[in-house]
């Protein structure tokens, strides 16, 4: 494992502690222009998410109506009633995004798929680096706002549903996550710079509770407006 990957996991509570856990949940307050661009404004503004830390699974509730929730895995997305009855489902959901751009509207299952894999990715970072098939390599450091951040390039296998196969993570001198770059493949490979802040410690694991996502230029600089997505986490719990 790359030394920076290990340093980052240690700074966020340690891989040994992470492996003692089964799931993480949080309340989400979300905003930004993405949801309106996709024709889904308001659906995930105020929701609860639960994500597995051992397998790629996640669920959002409520979803579209108070008695519904989502069920996400890489190969299937479903909307269910809270008592488990399937309302809608789609197998191989990533295939449904072929030909999409940033402004292509989503249906409810596409929104559920995106929200599921995105929050699973964020809540499991940086412990994703220890998953089978994930390769990491430290690359040249980055200067921003008077700070020097170390950068780690991670390459994900096709078995993991996430934004893009290659992503770059930025860490401060203590090993804490500051920024996360990726391309949203299901949305026309839109380049994003995802900033995190206000870390809190929950059950021994450090979790950033504020997220802001902006567009990104080819040289790595950030497009400061509009704010594409904002995520504020509260009520973070591990089991």
What's the layout of helices and strands?
Elements (H helix, E strand, L loop, with lengths): L2 H9 L3 H4 L4 E9 L2 H4 L8 E7 L5 E4 L6 E6 L2 E6 L4 E6 L16 H17 L10 E10 L2 E9 L10 E6 L5 E8 L5 E13 L2 E12 L5 E2 L5 E10 L1
Antiparallel strand pairs: 1-2, 1-14, 2-3, 4-5, 5-6, 7-8, 8-9, 9-10, 10-11, 11-12, 12-13, 12-14
Please explain how this structure is put together.
This protein is mainly β and 239 residues long. The protein has a single domain (3-238), classed as Clam (outer membrane lipoprotein receptor (LolB), chain A). Helix content is 14%, strand content 45%. Strands 1, 2, 3, 7, 8, 9, 10, 11, 12, 13 and 14 form an 11-stranded antiparallel β-sheet that branches. It is globular and about 45 Å long.
State the CATH topology: outer membrane lipoprotein receptor (LolB), chain A
Q: Averaged pLDDT, please?
A: 97
Which structural class do the helices and strands define? mainly beta
Assign the CATH class: Mainly Beta
Secondary-structure element string: HHEHEEEEEHEEEEEEEE
Total number of β-strand segments? 14
The rough form would be described as: globular
Query: How much of the polypeptide forms β-strand, as a percent range?
Result: over 45%
Write a compact overview of the structure shown.
The protein has 4 helices and 14 strands. The protein has 239 residues and is mainly β.
Descriptive tags:
239 residues, mainly beta, outer membrane lipoprotein receptor (LolB), chain A, 11-stranded antiparallel sheet, 3-stranded antiparallel sheet, 4 helices, 14 strands, globular
